[in-house]
Design goal:
This protein is of the alpha+beta class. A hairpin with a 2-residue loop joins strand 9 and strand 10. Helix 1 packs parallel to helix 3.
């Protein structure tokens, strides 16, 4: 049976992340969304907290043994501050974590320290594809052996920092399985449009489409390990971030309802609103517990960990949409005004149903 009590090391990290999320991320979120750019100084400051470094063993430049539980605790707190900012800060994890989980020892020693021990740099991964029935375990992008190289062909979408990334992990199908491939910047055959993709939310985070046409990479660049653990890591991370966004929306709408007077009484005193807030709180706590359990199961190697990670991601995606939508309803007309953050929470929350592979700790 796992414990809900964080260790002293976890408490120290989460306290630091909470302060950063409260004092730096939340105040900057509105302007970043409107301007379409997150401040580089905040990304650098968030990187220095060591959230990703805490998930990397010391042998590869990190702080210690990997703990999925620690990662999801930090991801929730950071997403509470701002989802776009948290994804930007943790973007290098899209490159390092797959190498840690599925790479060779040589790949781990070559690539991970160069990212972890340096200042924040743009690294990313390309998993999602522009088709309505996308399945991470059955991608359309292909990889074929060609002498001493692999030949990659396909299209990717929702790739953060693609135009400036030093390197990225590209996922392609080979022999009926999804595999990761290390793709250095400037590789011939890769086309990245200059114009960013325009999304419903996350406007502070630059997303691009990526086209691969006859891209040749050395055979040494394949990640030989299984894709499953990589997908599990993404699922629990996204679930925890959904909890963070939902918690932010709940707290803001709750406080608004307690302070706002309508026809001589507080909004929160209306029974319908009180019931909505209660249901929101219940759903958040339920998904948080499920996510923590999934993270613990991954840490301890339980046989049903993959199923639990999937349940956490899908359940949290539904939960965050419900909670953020109700937060907008509770604010009434004010919920539709950009001066209040609940409309941003709802736009960002809607994306969790399609965010597979966009975050990983």
């Amino acid at each position: 049976m796992y414990s809900f009590e964080p260790s002293e090391e976890q408490k120290m990290l989460i306290d630091a992340v909470n302060r950063f999320a409260t004092n730096d991320m939340r105040p900057a979120a509105h302007d970043a969304e409107e301007s379409g750019q997150y401040q580089s100084r905040l990304i650098d400051k968030g990187w220095e907290l060591g959230v990703l470094q805490a998930s990397i063993p010391e042998a590869y430049g990190g702080f210690g043994d990997r703990s999925v539980v620690t990662g999801v605790l930090a991801a929730e707190s950071m997403a509470w501050g701002d989802l776009a900012g948290s994804m930007a800060i943790m973007a290098p994890g899209l490159f390092t974590m797959p190498i840690l989980l599925a790479g060779t020892e040589e790949q781990k020693k070559t690539y991970i320290p160069a990212v972890i021990e340096a200042a924040w740099q743009p690294y990313t991964a390309a998993l999602l594809e522009p088709k309505f029935d996308f399945d991470a375990n059955d991608v359309a992008t292909t990889a074929e052996a060609s002498g001493d190289e692999y030949l990659l062909n396909g299209e990717k979408t929702y790739v953060p920092f693609a135009s400036e990334a030093k390197s990225m992990i590209v996922y392609a199908k080979m022999d009926g399985k999804t595999r990761g491939f290390i793709l250095p910047s400037g590789t011939p055959g890769v086309t990245i449009p200059a114009e960013r993709q325009k999304l419903m939310g996350l406007n502070a985070l630059p997303f691009y489409s990526v086209k691969l046409e006859g891209v040749r990479i050395p055979k040494a660049n394949i990640l030989p390990g299984e894709f499953g653990p990589v997908l599990d890591a993404s699922r629990v991370t996204l679930a925890s971030m959904a909890v963070g966004v939902a918690k932010a929306a709940f707290e803001y709408s709750r406080d608004y309802a307690k302070d706002r007077d309508v026809f001589g009484m507080k909004v929160a005193q209306k029974q319908a609103i009180a019931f909505m807030l209660a249901e929101m709180a219940i759903e958040i706590e339920a998904m948080r517990a499920l996510t923590w359990e999934a993270a613990w199961m991954l840490d301890t190697g339980k046989p049903d960990a993959t199923k639990q990670a999937y349940l956490a991601q899908t359940g949290a995606a539904d939960m965050v949409m419900m909670v953020t939508d109700r937060a907008v309803q509770i604010l009434g007309g004010h919920g539709y005004i950009r001066e209040h953050p609940v409309e941003l929470f709802m736009r960002n929350g809607r994306g969790f149903a399609t965010f597979t592979g966009l975050a990983m700790v």
